[in-house]
Amino acid sequence: MKKSRLAKILTLSLSAVMIFSLASCGGGNESGDKDITVISREEGSGTRDAFTELTGILQDDVDKTVDTAEISNSTSVVTQSVAGNDAAIGYISLGSLDDSVKAVKVDGVEATVDNVKSGDYKLQRPFNIVTKSDLGELPQDFIKFIMSSDGQKIVEEEGYIMANDSAENYKASGLKGTITLAGSTSVSPVMEVLADKYKELNSDVTIEIQQTGSGAGIQSTLEGVCDIGMASRALEDEEASEGLTSQEIALDGIAVIVNNDNAVEDLTTEQIMKIFTGEITNWADVK
Amino acid sequence: MRKYSESIMKVVFLIAACVSIIAVILICVFLFASGVPAIKEIGISDFLLGNSWKPNQELYGIFPMIIGSIYVTAGSIIIGVPIGLLCAVFMARYCPKGLYRILKPAVDLLAGIPSIVYGFFGLMVIVPMVQGSLGGSGKCLLTASILLGIMILPTIISVSESNIRAVPEYYYEGSLALGATKERSVFRAVLPAAKMGILAGVILGIGRAIGETMAVVMVCGNQAIMPEGITSGVRTLTANIVLEMGYASGLHREALIATAVVLFVFILIINLSFTALKRRAD
């Protein structure tokens, strides 16, 4: 009796699986007109802030990213998800782009270092450092190093775009002390490399880098908690009026990425906006 | 002298015991102190039953995440418990000695794998499989359930196995003597006797599944919406916290801590029912 019941359950579940797979086969689409899988970053991410602002997804200060968008909290997961899904679209920092995914042209302009530098590629944001006017000698020297040809070379090696390509060499100053930096998590990785290099040249200097996010970094600079703030966005007027100055240390492009098998090569800013706000939901509509 | 050293050691043991209790109390105090004001500010019904989570529009409703956590956990139980239970029965009653020497360490190893590794395995293997067979992006309720189902296996297997072994041998022998087959004796006499202990194992598994973070965050899609089917993306309570904690500030940050309070209450309920069951089982 036991066995027959087991057999019944087995047959039932097997047939359920078969019906299920048949149904999913029937619903399958030809490649090319699949529903778009939108992949975005989490709320508050600097990359998301910049991307939504540049593409017009941010309308009247409201982020209109579609509810059904997948959310990833790191660049590598976005890349991996797009690489594994031929209907996916996402966005990452140009510095992190690799061969596993394809960056589409935006308004006909390819996402390359040169196009970001010339300003032709629209999806770009500055990496800024923010300082107060009464900056000490040591932080000033560190900024001098960042903006020197040695510092800017590191920026380029890390995959970002130099803000100053006619800079002079840096000479070690022999100063002593501690520099504190706080701010954007996007800027921090390249800042850490810069700090390591600076410490090699000036062995008596300690550099502390706190990853707190752009807004918090600017706030701490204003309060004097840190010497230099890092921001992956421009200063707001309100912040600038309180005596802060910002300086671009690098430019970063934001690459819109799709799967390597995706036939789409070129999207307009408006199409990207419509995809991410859920107005366009199928790849057939952007051909 | 001897007396002194004894009482000194007594104090040392007492301190050691206190440290863990103090840790629990501190966590409780921290969570409730920073979470409860946020819940009050948002409004308890808006917070617990609100349908949209949009921090940049000051909307903090975690209902989709509560449902997401419950669905994912239920899914992992549906997948993990039958497999785990049958595996435990096999290990306790059917397994040849030679095979047991391989199987037991393998199950223990499964318990020791870091969850981020499970997450990568899910992202690289399970996500493409689900995507290929059911369409969509592959990051969905089903994927998270399968992955968690695998992750809770060691808990369920080891607790169930020890409870099956703890059933007195005469239950099994008596059943055989009455003419029942081996299968019937195991499933009708031994298993029901170990029922309470097995249930306790399942509850431990639920606790593990609901608290899992890093693996789930990589495979569940993380959309803060009500899941509409098993191929719909979900966001769990844990995922919500880990996704946004890095950048959050102000009320947003407090709302995330409040999310942790809700999760903490869930775990508390699960642990209490585990203790209650354990007491009944003994």
UniProtKB/TrEMBL annotation, chain A:
Spans through the membrane: none
Q: Which InterPro entries does this chain map to?
A: PBP_domain, Phosphate_ABC_transporter
Q: In the UniProt record, does the keyword Signal occur?
A: yes
Subcellular locations according to the entry: Cell membrane
What membrane topology term does the record carry? Lipid-anchor
Q: Using the UniProt record, give the first listed, main subcellular location.
A: membrane
Q: Record's Gene Ontology CC terms?
A: plasma membrane
Q: Which GO terms describe its biological process?
A: phosphate ion transport
Q: Which UniProt keywords apply?
A: Lipoprotein, Palmitate, Phosphate transport, Signal, Transport
Highest taxon, organism lineage: Bacteria
Which Gene3D superfamilies did the record assign? Periplasmic binding protein-like II
Endpoints of the signal sequence: 1-23
Q: Which residues form the PBP domain?
A: 32-149, 176-285
Q: Which PANTHER family match?
A: PERIPLASMIC PHOSPHATE BINDING COMPONENT OF PHOSPHATE ABC TRANSPORTER, PHOSPHATE-BINDING PROTEIN PSTS
What does the subunit section of this Swiss-Prot or TrEMBL entry state?
A: The complex is composed of two ATP-binding proteins (PstB), two transmembrane proteins (PstC and PstA) and a solute-binding protein (PstS).
Q: Which family does it belong to?
A: Belongs to the PstS family.
Q: What does this protein do?
A: Part of the ABC transporter complex PstSACB involved in phosphate import.
User: By what name is this protein known?
Assistant: Substrate-binding domain-containing protein
This chain's source organism reads Lentihominibacter hominis
UniProtKB/TrEMBL annotation, chain B:
> Tell me, what does this protein do in biology?
Part of the binding-protein-dependent transport system for phosphate; probably responsible for the translocation of the substrate across the membrane.
Specify the protein name. Answer: Phosphate transport system permease protein
Query: Which organism encodes this protein?
Result: Lentihominibacter hominis
Coarse class of the protein's main subcellular location: membrane
- The keyword Transmembrane is assigned to this record: yes
The Gene Ontology CC terms held by the record are: plasma membrane
Q: Which family does it belong to?
A: Belongs to the binding-protein-dependent transport system permease family. CysTW subfamily.
One MF annotation (Gene Ontology) recorded for this entry: phosphate transmembrane transporter activity
Where is the ABC transmembrane type-1 domain positioned along the sequence? 66-274
Ranges that cross the membrane: 12-39, 59-88, 109-130, 142-164, 185-206, 255-277
The record's section on Pfam families has: BPD_transp_1 (PF00528)
What biological-process terms (Gene Ontology) are attached? phosphate ion transport
User: What membrane topology does this protein have?
Assistant: Multi-pass membrane protein
Q: Which UniProt keywords apply?
A: Cell membrane, Membrane, Phosphate transport, Transmembrane, Transmembrane helix, Transport
Task: State the encoding gene.
Answer: pstC
Location(s), subcellular: Cell membrane
